[in-house]
Structure formats: structure tokens, C-alpha cells
Design brief:
The structure is a homotrimer of 342-residue chains. By secondary structure, chain A is α/β, with parallel strands linked by helices. The first copy, chain A, has two domains: 19-144 and 324-338, Rossmann fold, CATH 3.40.50.1370; 147-318, Rossmann fold, CATH 3.40.50.1370. In chain A, 40% of the residues lie in helices and 15% in strands. Chain A is built from 13 helices and eleven strands. Chain A has helices at 19-36, 60-72, 93-103, 117-128, 145-159, 184-196, 211-221, 244-247, 261-264, 271-278, 282-285, 308-311, 319-338, and strands at 50-55, 76-81, 107-112, 133-139, 173-177, 199-203, 227-228, 231-234, 237-240, 252-255, 293-295. A seven-stranded mixed β-sheet of chain A has the order 7-8-9-6-5-10-11. Chain A has a four-stranded parallel β-sheet with strand order 2-1-3-4, with helices on both faces. Chain A starts with 18 loop residues before the first helix and ends with a helix. At the B-C interface, β2 and α3 of B face α2 and α13 of C.
Chain lengths: 342, 342, 342
């Protein structure tokens, strides 16, 4: 592992991540990626430590990824699933967290459908003066930092496998397409991509990318939002209500999962129309740079966010790489949070 | 670990626990508490042994505690959860247990909402002449021995951290408050506390502490129950239909979880009235000894059994210590049951 | 472990298993059975490898068996359960499998209620050119190879514990009784038993053993089916619509689980009548060879497929041995699939 100083005690949001922190995560993940290519894929780094996956919102895929990352660091894992838990018995979330703290948990990986729950748990741990770390594994429509970091790692290792670092994205055009409004993945990615110096283009139907959201994001970023209907343009963040200007000369296209529940809420006319307008296909990719790559956080609705043939095309799709990167990046995050503890 | 003789093959009830057995558990747990404070928290004691958590009634908190205890002893764990199991396919409980026996389970940790299930499984294992041990992790309204033992350990280590032993409780006044009638925790605690020579005061509304129960408990304990309405008094067990005489000069107050289902059964007027009459608050604690401590087996209904501010007050609340003690005590129980096996 | 060549990359069906393959599984399982009798039951064979249990159909018993087998080989395990998974989010089965592949899974143990799913996953893995192995843990009414192999191992080790091998069954009469039509266990057993040179007698009511099925099976086996109502007789496979001719002089009786859902489908009059006609009892066993043994894949409906007293009679019942064999056989299968990988 790279010898480095890491002072962040919780990973809750990427909004205030520094370039040094991004680079430390990327380099540490690269080291673990190398470990994962060895015959013996386990390292004793977190032996005796306990990683508790507190998934108040169920997710097999993300939970498995964190669980395997923890096991490959030789940590012991505890899985908490809301469905079979004391939550139904009226216990508060903070009390559940404190129970896992009292059992001896070193790192809590927290997912919840309400924004802010991981922050609330982290604040409570700090108030108590304990050394436990909290890692946000997705909270409501707020953030999903480990997903954005694995997206970043996937892109950076593609550009320079030997030395992934944030500056590699400088000047790249990256399109984020889909349900921006409801996406915690988009929010976390916006922070990291803007920090990298990339040009970020958001594209979605107006119902999924309202002006108010654009203003909010611009304000958070400290950039001035200028409306030039039908799309805003405030470097380095651009917002479009049509797909084409976002795809034009893009280096990377990040598609977002479309929750089918959005239909019932009358935010979209139909899945078919959505696919026609904002679904990514090989034809539409011709607008992009020739060696453009497509990402998706999964699980994918084939034929909605992305065409089935494009998803399976190794020339364009990074979707499988993202999952693989997920193990290395989550090992890195657990390592950085946990290595100072014992 | 203390070198000791331990002859009990199953832990099903505390009704016939001897002083030596209590002290062995307390001393063994103290050794593991020390292990848990080390950098490397794992010991190889039960390597290669299998601990099966057969939770016919779901409980994340207790299951996680047993699972972590087993993992810290380097045992392999199997989790059986009734919801996703063959139970729905009509298999009997004994057949499920025998299946886990045949797979090579060494220790079965059993929870069931019917009283007597762990005993029935243990009896079947003995009939078959096999060496597997059964540990009752809560059966109906019968017993929850590991909870009472961790309560005991929590109290004893507070009095003498270096050498927790049963006699430390001699002459202490301990109040158990709440839904005595339906509580397996109360039943197990009554056995251990009476054995210690403590004075045990039960306090609950008459619907949750009926005369018949008082007579049954007294008979079991071999003491004569004398009614002196509104409360009985038969040393060393005292029963009260009001909170105040139980709290008067108490050294420890054990509160019990109130199942909200009791409301529907018309056993209680309202949660608010219950809290006013039997909920523990800082004000009510002024009746107790100045350094009184409060316990609760969790999960807590804040503002019902105990006020929210009291629960979070480290001066009075032992609730977090109980959870921590749970790991050490369960490691001790698994160790004592398992160490003679391999 | 026996030094042997094993070239099969997936275990999906026993239809094309060779004698050498059967014998390799049996001998490898015998080696692991010996390991399981030692004080230290774990071997480091699959350390660092990942076994993912992808159970799209829930099964605690089979999942626990595979999980324990993997743990005793020191593999890391991931459990995927359909109920709490992305399946509800619309992801396809192949995408789920590819996600677990991308995480670094070495062996996928797959159960699904549709026939052919494990084959489809294996075909996709091969198409992708990856080294991951797929092990069918039960697919619809198609096959359940590990169950048939553990049945085979149970029988062969009974005949010659030191050297279990396929030829030991040559000339033995084996009755398979029950819901043949819907049983993946029966299908897999038919392949292995016919391959061994045993005489296989199927017995069931006509609704659960239709003529069409008899013809299909005969064709698959390459034998000619001759009707001689009320039963067919085409050596080495015989089909009966009555129990008695199947039991006559049988060496082994394999009973099958009766899914209660069959009643609702009007395939059977009543459980009681089924038990009277096809349920196995000590009295009916008098038709068999004196030292006949009875098997059942579990979970058992006591008093339906088999009488309760017979199930518990160690003189006749191999049901517990089957579960124990399951661990050794599944360790052997994971070892054979995994040992060439790292």
C-alpha cells in the first residue's frame, strides 16, 4: 500500500473531498487491484476488525461488494438487514447503530432510503467520542460516494492503469444521462468530476432535471447558472434537456438507473419514449468521440437506459469493469478508514 | 482462560445453575473481555467447529451478538432464519435440528417463540447420544439465559472489574420493572439474582404481574409468598404493583421491554400512562441509592420503559455496557460448551 | 486428495457423466469425509477463492450445506437470495451472474425454479471466455446433481467405506418412489444409477409417472420402453403404477419429497390415501431384501412419503447419513471445480 496520510474519519459525501484524498483512494485501490490479480487474494490488513453492513434499504449487489471487500481484508463482517430487524420493534436508527458500536464494530457501512442517515450516525459516533468510522453506501437522493469513486477509478485506470489520478480527467467531456433529480450516484459523481477539471454535461427530460435543481447545484458548486434555454451552460457544469448536445464529442457517458416508480409518479410518458429520447445506443454514440466509453451503476434496465447490444459490447461498455473496480475501491476505503484504528 | 471444570452440556435455563457455574462464566467472560481490548481480538479456540444459529424467531441483535462471538473464537457460523427456510415446507423443528446436526454442527444456538423448543432439541440430541450442545437464545416467555448472564456480568464487573463473581451482589437491592409476566429475560434474571443473595423486587401493573405468577415463582423458588396488598413480600423476592417501593434504595434497576402488542390485548391502558406509572426517569431514580444504575435488554422503546434522556445518560445507563458484555459472555458460553468437544 | 485428472468445468447434469468422473467424485468425497472426522476440519484448499451461492429459489438446507462445504475448504462465500435482491429491480438473471463474476467469483452455485438457468449461466460464462465454474444446485424439474451424487456416495460408502466406487451398485435393485414427474432429484438419480449398472424401478401413481414421461426417459436412456400395463419393463429401467413390484427384493428405496402444491393441482386424491398407497413403512419394507435401506432428499413430510417411525429407525433410514455425505460430496465438487483455478 502507498504510505500516505489519511485524516478523514468518515466517508459521507464527496462534496469536500480534496485532490489529495481522491488520489490516495485511486492509488490505494490500484494496489488492491494488483492484490486481486494474485493467486492469494486476501491480505491480513483488517484482521480482528469488524465491518457491519447496516443496510436499512436492501441491496444485494452493493452489500455483496462491501462484504467481499471486507473479507479480502480479513475483517469479520456482520450483516444487518432492515426487514428482519429490530426496526420493526420500534428501535431508533441511532440506537441500532449504537448497539453495533457496543458490540465492537470498527466500520459501519450504512445505506438508508432517507438522505442524511449516515451523517446522523457519524455525528452521533463523534459526539460519543468513539473511533468507529461511518461509510455512506447510499442515502436517499443525497450521495453514494463509493459508487462515484469506483466510477472515477474505472475511468482513470482506463486512461493510465499504472497511475490512476484525478488530473487525468482534466478537460475530458463527461455526460451524465438520466434521472439526475433522484440520483445519489449523479450527485456524488458531479463532485468528483468537477473536482477533476472535467467538463460535466447533465442530460435529462425537464421533469428529471428541473431548473431549480440546476440552480441548487450551481450554487453548491459556487458557479453562476446562466439559462440559455433549452439548456444551461455554466462551465464546467452544463445542463441539457436534450441528449444530443451532451453526447457531442463526449469522452465518457454515464447512464443512470431509471426507477420504474417514476412512471407512476407521472414524471415520464413511457419507458419506450424515454428510451427513444434518452436511452443510449450505438447509433447515438456516433455523436461522441470515437473511443467513447459508457458506464452504468447497475442494475440495468436493458432497453431503457441503454440498449441491450450496447450494454454487452466490450468495445464501449465499462459496466463489468465498474463492478470489478468496486471491490478494489471498497477495499481501499475500508483500508483507509480502518488502518489507523487497531 | 481460567482452568476449570465445566460439566454442563447444554445451557437451557438458569434455574439449576450453581454458584461455581455462575463464577466460571463470569471469570471466563472477564478473560474474553480482556482479549477484546487487544489489538488482535480473535482467538483460535473453536477453529474448525461449527456454530449454527437456529433462529426460528427473528432477531438481528441477538443473532449478530452470537455470530460475532463465534467468529472471534474462529468458529464457522451457519445462520438459519425461519422465514426463508424449510419450515414453510412442513419440516418439523426436530428434523431441522437433526439436519444441522448431520451437517456437522457442534453448537446450536436456538431461539423460538414457543417455550421449551431448545429443551426439546437438547433432549433429542441426548437421546441420539451425540455431542452437540444446545444454547437457549430465548424461548417464548420461558428463559433467555445468555441475557441474564450478560446482565450479571455487567453488574459484577462494575463492582469489581478484576474479579467479577456472584457474591458481589449479596445484599444488593435490585428492581426489575415492567412486563414481568411475558418476559423470558425477567425469569432468567430472577434465577441468577436470587442465587447471588440479592434482594429482588419486581414491579409491574397487576395485569403484567398477576398474583398467580407471584405464587408460581415463589413456589419454584421454594419460598412462601405472603400477600400484603398492594404488594407481596417474601424475602428475598418482593413483588409490587407500584413502582416506588421497588425503587426505594435500589442499587440497580432492570427495565424490561414492553411489547406493543400488549396494548391490543387490553393489558395496558396506554403507553403514556404506562410511562407515567412505570417508566424510569431521572426524577424517579432519586428514590434509589445515589449511584444507582439502570439496565435494559434492548431494543428500547424510548419514552416508554425509560425516558430518552436517562437512556443516554452515561452516569446512570448501563445499556451500552450490556451489549458489549454480551459479546464477552457469549464467547465464554460458546467456549465452555465447545472447548471439550474437539 | 487422490491425484486425478478432472476436465469438467461445470457440473450441470449427470446425463453425460462418465464412470471415471463418478469414481473421482466418490473417492475425493471419501478423502474429505476423512478430513471431517479429524479434530481440525478445515483445509486451506480454496483459500482466497470466492464461492457465490446464487439461490434464486430459497433453500436454507442446501444453501447451508454448500456454504459449510465452502467454508471448510477455506473459501470466502457470498450469499445471494432472490427475495432481497435486484431481481425485483428488473435485472436479468444473466446480468446478476455477470455482476458476481465481475466481483471475482470463482464458483457459482445456482438454484432456480426454472429448468435450464444454470446451463444458461454456464453458457454465458463460456461465451465470455472466463474461468468461473457453475454448479447446478437444483433447477426446476430438471436436475439436482449434487443431491444424486451424495445419494450415490451414501450408498457406496455403506457397501465399501474404504473404497466407494460406481461398480458397487451393479445388479442392485433400487426403487425410486414418489413424485417422479416433478422431481429433479429423481432425474439426476436415474442417470447415476443406470450408469452404475443397477436395476432402477420407478413407482408412482399414474398422474406422477405418466406414460409420456416413461417414453421420454427411455428414449433419453437409449432403451426401448415396452408397455406391460400396469407397468412398463425395459431393463435396466422399470416403471410401475403400484408400489409393491418396485419394493419386491429391493436393496435400496429412494423416497421423494411430495410437494403439497400437487394436491391443489388435483394430481392426488389426499395425503392420507397417498401414504396408504405409496408411503414407505416398516411393514411394506418386508417385501424388500432384509437389509434394505431407505433414502429421502429432505425435508421430509413425516407420515406422507415415509412413516415417522421408519424415518427415525437407524436400522433402515439413511436420511441423516445423506445430510452428512452432502458436506463431503459438496466439498469434493467445489474442490474438483476450484483446484485447477488459482
Amino acid at each position: 500500500m502507498p504510505t500516505t496520510t489519511w485524516n478523514r474519519h468518515h466517508i459521507l459525501s464527496l462534496a469536500d473531498f480534496t485532490t489529495t484524498e481522491y488520489d490516495t483512494v485511486l492509488q490505494t485501490a490500484a494496489s488492491f487491484q494488483e492484490v486481486l490479480s494474485r493467486r492469494t487474494k486476501k491480505v491480513p490488513t483488517l484482521q480482528g476488525q469488524v465491518v457491519a453492513n447496516l443496510f436499512f434499504e436492501s441491496s444485494t449487489r452493493t452489500r455483496s461488494s462491501f462484504e467481499l471487500a471486507a473479507k479480502r481484508l480479513s475483517a469479520d463482517t456482520l450483516n444487518f438487514a432492515a426487514a428482519t430487524s429490530s426496526m420493526t420493534k420500534g428501535e431508533t436508527i441511532l440506537d441500532t447503530a449504537k448497539t453495533y458500536l457496543a458490540m465492537g464494530t470498527d466500520i459501519m457501512v450504512v445505506r438508508h432510503r432517507e438522505a442524511g442517515v449516515p451523517n446522523a450516525i457519524a455525528a452521533e459516533m463523534d459526539r460519543l467520542g468513539v473511533r468507529v468510522s461511518v461509510l455512506n453506501a447510499g442515502d436517499g437522493q443525497h450521495e453514494h460516494p463509493s459508487q462515484a469513486l469506483l466510477d472515477l477509478f474505472t475511468i482513470c485506470t482506463l486512461i493510465d492503469p499504472a497511475s490512476p489520478r484525478l488530473e487525468l480527467l482534466k478537460g475530458k467531456k463527461i455526460a451524465i444521462v438520466g434521472d439526475i433529480l433522484h440520483s445519489r450516484v449523479a450527485r456524488s459523481n458531479i463532485w468528483s468530476l468537477i473536482a477533476s477539471g472535467a467538463e460535466v454535461h447533465l442530460a435529462a427530460p425537464p421533469t428529471l432535471l428541473p431548473k431549480l435543481f440546476a440552480e441548487y447545484i450551481s450554487e453548491e458548486l459556487g458557479v453562476k447558472s446562466q439559462e440559455s434555454s433549452p439548456h444551461f451552460s455554466t462551465p464546467p457544469l452544463f445542463l441539457h434537456w436534450q441528449l444530443e448536445p451532451a453526447l457531442q464529442d463526449a469522452d465518457f457517458v454515464m447512464t443512470l438507473r431509471l426507477q420504474k416508480e417514476r412512471m407512476t409518479a407521472h414524471l415520464l410518458p413511457s419507458l419506450r419514449e424515454y428510451h427513444q429520447l434518452f436511452g443510449i445506443t450505438r447509433t447515438k454514440l456516433q455523436l461522441c468521440k470515437p473511443n467513447v466509453k459508457v458506464l452504468h451503476p447497475g442494475p440495468v434496465n436493458r432497453g431503457v437506459e441503454i440498449s441491450s447490444e450496447l450494454m454487452d459490447d466490450p468495445e464501449f461498455s465499462l459496466i463489468q469493469s465498474q463492478v470489478t473496480s468496486g471491490i478494489a475501491v471498497r477495499m481501499a476505503l475500508l483500508y483507509l478508514l480502518g488502518s489507523g484504528k487497531a
